[in-house]
Amino acid sequence: MNIKNVVGLVVAAAGLSACGGSDGGTSFDSLATRGDSLIEKYEVVELTPVGSMPTAGTASYEGVAGYFFSEAAYDAAESAADADVLSTVSLTANFSDSSIAGSLGNFKDREGVSVSGSVAIKDGQIMDNVFMADLDGSITAENETATVRGVTYGGFVGGTAEAVMGAIEADIIHGPSDVEGLYGEFIAERK
């Protein structure tokens, strides 16, 4: 997990708070505050030791995700001006059957463009202390709806999987020959 990019996305969330707006009770300010709190708490925390991972029951996680429309911008993320979009992330890990699922929603565009929709995190598998899942959904911005498909992968952190961090790699499909790459990361804490 590249913690530099996770730190970058949360710093971006803080800088984006000046853009204002709200959707479903989630504003830039609340995303920034939540993201800052999570990154401060988990930025130096190691992956959960495999032997300390829960093996039964479920856990719910909530947090913040940040996205970039170019891999170069994603790789170079250093400041608030770098993130293109923020959202909430909700996950449920089922440790009994080693699955993980959730959603990305409440999207906020850095330019103040209204973005609606949601992306499902589905068909996820937990392997030891890491996971991989599919992304599938749609988003609408400026009266244009696009399909989002991709993957997310990452790991559980803390002594007993108190949080999860992950990377996002997806395509935004506007049409058969109009595909845009989307890159990002998220951090979420057990509720």
TrEMBL record:
Residues 53-189 form the Transferrin-binding protein B C-lobe/N-lobe beta-barrel domain. Gene3D superfamilies: 2.40.160.90. InterPro entries: OMP/PagP_B-barrel, TbpB_B_D. This is Transferrin-binding protein B C-lobe/N-lobe beta-barrel domain-containing protein.
